[in-house]
Specification:
By secondary structure, the chain is α/β, with parallel strands linked by helices. It has two domains: 229 residues, TIM Barrel, CATH 3.20.20.60; 28 residues. The protein has eleven helices and eight strands.
């Protein structure tokens, strides 16, 4: 997509300035050109090409099945619809956990093949070597702590994380580690609001919350959830801004009715 020269792009530096100024950061997921164009045009700061595509696009139960090639396809589609916002792409499960060389190779593929601006990785001390290597190669990295969906089989539940002191202490240490390793921001998912506030105040880089209270430096939701395209997923932290599922159902039912009754197409809708 051609860049409008009057549009000022959001960068990792922009997010840093927003935190310093107390301006909240808005972030949503997107997985294709059409929705990316809508979301970017509506003024979002950050688009996350999430591995949640595994759930909301492909219909899998978890985020684990989606591949690096599939993430690259989605990210390439999103980038073509974006003029202004920062685009972050999830490194999918299996593309960075085994060693730092594979992690770097995965991140390089995303940057070269999609035109995206940064990558996101789940975990703290366990992946710190990979984060350092990717950052040292000049690729911006967003961290992700708290509930990390790629480890769902380890946790066995999507319940709130870090309610106990031991896990909360580890999360605070991991957040500092990620900042020290060069991450430009950290997603905090489904943790107590008080802990998220403490972590946000302790860091110089922005935090982006999802189910982590209002004191994070920004917020992220999955587009399909906040637009009401999904109907099954209704956690406490989700605010649904539209009910696309019901509206789309009514529209399709009306189309079927119009075709069956020979109302569509009418004389003005043909050549």
């Amino acid at each position: 997509m051609s860049v409008n020269k009057e549009v000022k792009r959001v960068t990792t530096n922009t997010l840093q300035k927003m935190k310093a100024a107390g301006e909240k950061i808005s972030m949503l997921t997107a997985y294709d050109f059409s929705f990316a164009r809508i979301i970017d045009g509506a003024g979002i700061d950050v688009i996350l090409v999430g591995d949640s595509a595994s759930n909301v696009i492909a219909g899998h139960e978890t985020t684990l099945p989606i591949t690096l090639d599939q993430m690259i396809y989605h990210a390439s589609s999103v980038i073509r619809g974006v003029e202004r916002c920062l685009v972050v792409v999830d490194l999918p499960f299996g593309s960075y956990q085994s060693n730092s060389d594979i992690a770097l190779a995965s991140a390089i593929r995303i940057m070269k093949e999609t035109g995206a601006h940064s990558v996101k990785m789940e975990g703290g001390a366990e992946v710190i070597d990979s984060i350092r290597k990717i950052v040292s190669a000049g690729i911006p990295v967003m961290g992700h702590l708290g509930l990390i969906p790629q480890s769902i089989y380890k946790f066995g539940t999507y319940a709130v994380r870090a309610k106990e002191e031991v896990e909360a202490d580890k999360l605070k240490k991991d957040a500092q580690l990620l900042q020290d390793a060069g991450c430009f921001a950290i997603v905090l998912e489904k943790i107590p609001a008080g802990l998220a506030k403490e972590v946000s105040l302790s860091l110089t880089i922005p935090t982006i919350g999802i189910g982590a209270g209002g004191d994070c430096d920004g917020q992220v939701l999955v587009m399909h959830d906040m637009l009401g395209i999904n109907t099954e997923f209704k956690p406490r932290f989700l605010r649904q801004y539209l009910n696309v599922y019901d509206q789309a159902t009514l529209a399709v039912q009306q189309y079927v009715k119009d075709v069956k009754s020979k109302d569509f197409p009418n004389e003005s809708e043909q050549y």
